[in-house]
Amino acid sequence: MLELLRKTLLKHQKSRWIKMSATWDEGGMGLTKVVDTLVDEVNCNTESVIVDLGSGSGQLTIPLAKRSKSVYAVDISPPMLEQLVDRAGQQGIKNIKPVAGSIEEVKFDPSSVDFVVTNYALHHLLDSDKSLIAKSIFGWLKPGGEVIIGDMMFGRGSDSRDREIIKGKLTALIKRGPGGWLRIIKNVFRYSLRFSERPVPIETWVENLTNAGFTDIKYEKIVAEAVIMSANKPKQ
Asked: Between helices 78-90 and 2-20, what is the axis angle to 10°?
């Protein structure tokens, strides 16, 4: 049953992101502060191999490629990867390796990469797959490697931070008038019913990473629901 649900959701996600690829660069990039902070957090060099999960059109991939050996750009939408390759080519960047596929299914050799990064992609995963991807990332990383996650991290109103985030979103959407009211209705399905968006609290991600074997887990609240979390694979 879980596998059937996963396949159905992946089919929906692929269709959704293929459709969004046409206008993503014009209106969907957003969260500039999160992207900039993520890029700054990656202490890579010209020998570093990086995996970007949910790369989109390259907001993280391209700046990281400029100062690393290579970046594997993983995305479920082939058109998104085509945009990424075109953008990189215009800047003379040739060390990006596009990987068309879902985060849930992608595989890399054990201990083969130095960094795994991801921005606003993992909240789409089922909760069980969030735990599994943490373990997969741990396996891909070389000893001493690092994962850096930028994502929405909040629950469903069980603590004061959750309630403040939800209140802020509702207030902003109400002020937009009818268009915002429609978004509220859509978000009930996306967040409350966890149809498409499935964020979990900071504590859940700390637990996922700890259970996978990571240490030195740190996080920073950036803006509203956005959090950047990093963790290391022990050197020994």
From this structure: 40
**Under 8 Å CB-to-CB from 47, ≥6 apart: which residues?**
69, 114
- C-alpha distances (whole Å) from 60 to each of 41, 78, 168, 218 are 11, 17, 27, 20
CATH class of 2-153+199-232: alpha beta
Q: How many residues does the chain have?
A: 236
| pLDDT, tens digit only, all 236 positions of the chain | 667 767 777 776 767 667 665 565 544 445 788 899 999 999 999 999 999 999 998 999 999 999 999 999 999 999 999 999 999 999 999 999 999 999 999 999 999 999 999 999 999 999 999 999 999 999 999 999 999 999 989 875 566 666 676 666 656 666 677 765 566 556 655 655 565 678 899 999 999 999 999 999 999 999 778 899 999 999 97
Q: How many CA atoms lie within 13 A of 166 on its CB side?
A: 16
Reported pTM: 0.83
- Give start-end residues of each CATH 3.40.50.150 domain in the chain: 2-153+199-232
| 41, 230 Cβ separation under 8 angstroms | yes
